[in-house]
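Example 333.
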Amino acid sequence: MHSPMPYRRLGRSGLQLSVLSLGSWVTFHNQMDASGVREMMAAARDAGVNFFDNAEVYANGLSERLMGEALAQLKWHRLDYVVSSKFFWGLDAGTADKPRINGRNTLNRKYLMQAVDASLQRLQLDFIDLIFCHRPDPHTPIEETVWALHNIIEQGKALYWGTSEWSADEIRTAYAIAERHHLHKPVMEQPQYHLFHRKRVEQEYARLYADIGLGLTTWSPLASGLLTGKYRQGIPAGSRGAMPNVSFLRDGLLDAQKNAAVGQFETIARELGCSVAQLALAWVAHNPQVSTVILGASRLSQLQENLGALDVLPKLTPEVLAQMDAISAPLAA
Ligand code: NDP
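Predicted structure in complex with NDP:
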């Protein structure tokens, strides 16, 4: 048993999310079948997780399908869980001679309206709690996107909207447009945040938390597994680093300086009586601007270990945090 799950408001909204939540990128479909997904979601829910993160593009729509099937079978009360999806890349690029130009790499109104409907079908839901613009689209006016998101919410197909990996400037622009026209405002951002990736959350967005009440659902808290120490001796078989469909991660996972730093974090973890993964996750959760840390796990034992980060939170004294900062700050983007 772990410490009880704490809940935090998603920014200035009234919605409460579990501090640790569960994501599906890479894992659902590629590493887990329907029963694995159901078991993983059930274990997370048993531990108090109430937020499950997804995206249209994950496993080409199959991640949403698997989550939808699991939710249909688990039959939880709809008030007890929050589901997200994200839109930008589109599902089918068309063919070389007939590219699907209005359905990829875009946040235009037409794509967003159609994409949400298709997502709802795959998830077997009447509404998606949180919808994200998965990346900024420099070719569509932000005003068009804000209106589309507002309309989707007004149609009852989503409850809150936000962004993922937008600049502070783009987020502020979207917020100002929504405020000017009395539209639903962006409530949350989904940025990468871990010991080796800090500047956007800690510096670029610094003013947004108080100014517009931005909440954060942060991704890749273990830097895709680097912060578990599993890549210190190369790429283990069966790990994410060995998967051909995410080969772009490989160089980062093998970074010698970062793996040496992970060794130093391991020493701190040993002194605290926890694993380095738990230490790294607790460090992310310790930041009060983080509404929820989205965990990734390819097997149940990882999820169980990672949920143990809750026990480590009270051990992050100012001295421990200072030690970690001295190791992380020089290497962090
Ligand atoms: P992590 O950085 O925590 O990486 C998770 C992976 O690390 C696991 O799948 C597993 O991979 C390995 N791992 C996790 N725990 C352990 C452990 N205790 N011991 C050993 N290995 C472990 O998170 P993700 O990169 O998966 O991101 C989390 C979620 O964030 C995603 O599921 C998605 O929902 C969201 N996300 C959002 C993005 C966005 O653009 N908005 C981008 C990326 C993610 P393996 O066993 O295969 O090695």
